[in-house]
Amino acid sequence: MKADDPRVRRTRARLRTAVLTLAAEKDVGAITVSEVARCAGVNRATVYLHFPDVDALVTDAMEEAVAQVARAAALCPRDAPRDRTPEPLTVLFGHVAAAAPLYRRMLGPQGSALFVVRMRERLTAELAGRFAGGHRAGGLDDVPTETHAAYLAGALTGVIAHWVTGDPPAPAEEVALAFWRLFRT
User: Fold this and answer.
1) Spatial distance between the Cα atoms of 146 and 125, rounded to a whole number of angstroms
2) Which pLDDT score, from 0 to 100, does residue 113 have?
3) Which terminus of the chain, N or C, has fewer Cβ atoms within 10 Å?
4) Up-side HSE of residue 103: CA atoms within 13 Å toward CB?
5) Is residue 15 one of the residues assigned to a domain?
6) What's the rounded Cα separation, in Å, for the pair 102 and 65?
C-alpha cells in the first residue's frame, strides 16, 4: 500500500473523520473497530489494513487536529494591536468552536492524556520554530526559546480546555481576544 496513492489517502481521511466523529460522541476508549468501519463505510479489514488498532487511528486523527491548532498559533504576528485578535488566532478558535464536542471530550476530565501531551508538544515545537526564525518579542533573551514556547503552549492548551469545558462556553471571539492579550505579555 502506497501512502501517496489517492485511494489510500481518501480511505485514511474517511477513517480519521469517522473516529473523530465517534470521539465527539463517546469516550475514546469505548470506540470499537467495528464502529469506525461502519461510520467510515468500510469493512473491519480495511481499518486494520491502515491502522493496527483504534488507539493508533485516534492518535493519527488527533495529530491533524493538533497540527492545525499549532500552525494557527505559531502564525500570530507579535506586533498585532492588543485589542484586535490576529486572523490566525481567530481561525484557531473558530476551528476549536466548530469541533467543540471533540475538544471537550479530549481535553475534559475524562479526556485523553495523550491528546493533551501531543497538543502541548506540537504547539511547543511550532512556537519554538517560529521564535527561532525571529518572531519572538524582545526583552526575553534571558529565557530559553524552548521554555518560552512551552510556557505559551501550556497556556493555550489550558485556555482551550477551560473554554470548551465551560458551562456555557464563552463566544470564540471573546476567548480569542482574551488569549491574545495574555499571549502578548
Assistant:
1) 8
2) 77
3) C
4) 25
5) no
6) 10
Give the residue numbers spanning the domain of 112: 58-183
User: CA-CA distance, 70 to 153, in Å (whole number)?
Assistant: 9
Structural domain count of the chain: 1
Cα–Cα distance for residue pair 34/12, rounded to 1 Å: 15
Set of cell numbers at residue 35: 464502529
Residue with cell 476530565: 109
More confident residue, 185 or 124: 124
pLDDT at 34 over 70: yes
Task: Enter the C-alpha cell of residue 78.
Answer: 507579535
Collect all residues with Cβ–Cβ distance below 8 Å to 74 and sequence separation of at least 6: 88, 123, 126, 127, 129, 130
Residue 10: pLDDT above 70? yes
The string over 138-176, giving b where at least 16 C-beta atoms fall within 10 Å of a residue's C-beta and e elsewhere, is eeeeeeebeebbbebbeebbebbbebbbeeebeebeebb
Which pLDDT tens digit goes with each residue over 112-150? 777 788 888 888 988 888 888 877 777 778 889 899 889
The alpha carbon of 181 is separated from its chain's Cα centroid by a whole number of angstroms, namely: 21
Tell the residue number behind the cell numbers 473497530, with chain if given: 33
When mean pLDDT is compared across 7-16, 32-41, 44-53, 136-145, the lowest value belongs to 136-145
